[in-house]
Amino acid sequence: MDERTAAAELQKLVNGFQVSQAICVAATLGIADHLKDCKRTSGELAALTNTHPQALYRLLRALASVGVFHEAEDRSFSLTPVGGALRSDVQHSVAPWAILAGRPYFRQAWSDLLHSVSTGENAFRHAYGKGVWEYRAEHPEESVIFDRAMTAMSRGVAAAVLTAYDFRPFSVVMDVAGGQGALLAEILRRNPGQRGILFDQPQVVAKAGPVFDAAGVSDRCDIVAGDFFVSVPEGADAIVLKWILHDWDDDTNIRILKTCRRAIRPEGKLLVLESILAPPNEGASAKFGDLNMLVMPGGQERT
Ligand SMILES: C[S@@+](CC[C@H](N)C(=O)[O-])C[C@H]1O[C@@H](n2cnc3c(N)ncnc32)[C@H](O)[C@@H]1O
Q1: Which end of the chain has fewer CB atoms within 10 angstroms, the N or the C?
Q2: Is the CB of 243 under 6 A from ligand 1?
Q3: Whose CA is nearest to atom 15 of ligand 1?
Q4: Is residue 135 within 6 Å of ligand 1 at its C-beta?
Q5: Which domains does the chain have, with CATH numbers?
Q6: What is the DSSP string of 35-89?
Q7: Mutate to test the pocket of ligand 1, among 144, 228, 259, 292 (most ligand atoms within 8 A of CB)
């Protein structure tokens, strides 16, 4: 690669935050849902989303230049396969995550990455003087956005989890800090006769009911609110911890694991689901996810 091409490549990476924020805005406005069956002009989309026509056109043409939408001569836009992942009704919808990643508090914490790298400390706590879970509990609108993102991502991986692991031997599966239950609902749906317990913070499980209703498994699942530093319900022969241990430091994880150990049946199994860090020079998703753990909750990927 010559020097000019290399510089242009780097410039593109540096400006990645602009692409990310533009996608966040398109997701927040629900542009992809308006394009799911037909192409529309930017003027039509501006009317549908109550936005400034020229400014929206500028957003859409920028996103068309990176392959999220396709722009035709008449300023009409349609979805590309990549942009299709911003639809809210697809199994692997990235829209909830895009909306979360563009939230001001999220970007603010990331802008303190230098602090984390200089000190090893959690950027979020440095910026806000409290942990991210406490912050979200105090900002219910942010908690709702975060929980939606987790639900969408869990839906996206549930089929792969169930292909990789046989949950049939268990009679009671408990998902500790299981969010709004997207994974547990799918486990129960695929394993008739099995019971489940969803455990998470009160403001999170408050919206879990419809997830189990939609899967037709509500009658086989108890939804329990609480704090995993205090206790979790007893009686499960499998405890799932998905994307939990990566949120915390080692000492805190030992406390969570001890709580689980006290509650699980003696012959029970603890199932830990986390990202796998690839060998050097590969696997950007998990490695940037690891940086996100440093910045936001103050944890790390450990594989
Ligand atoms: C990264 S999310 C993962 C959610 C879910 N397991 C999933 O994979 O979609 C971490 C979860 O930990 C929960 N959590 C944080 N602190 C908690 C606590 N003290 N007690 C119970 N749950 C907690 C959050 O509410 C959140 O749902």
Answers
A1: N
A2: yes
A3: 133
A4: no
A5: 3-87 (1.10.10.10), 103-295 (3.40.50.150)
A6: TSSS-EEHHHHHHHHT--HHHHHHHHHHHHHTTSEEE-TTSEEEE-HHHHTT-TT
A7: 228
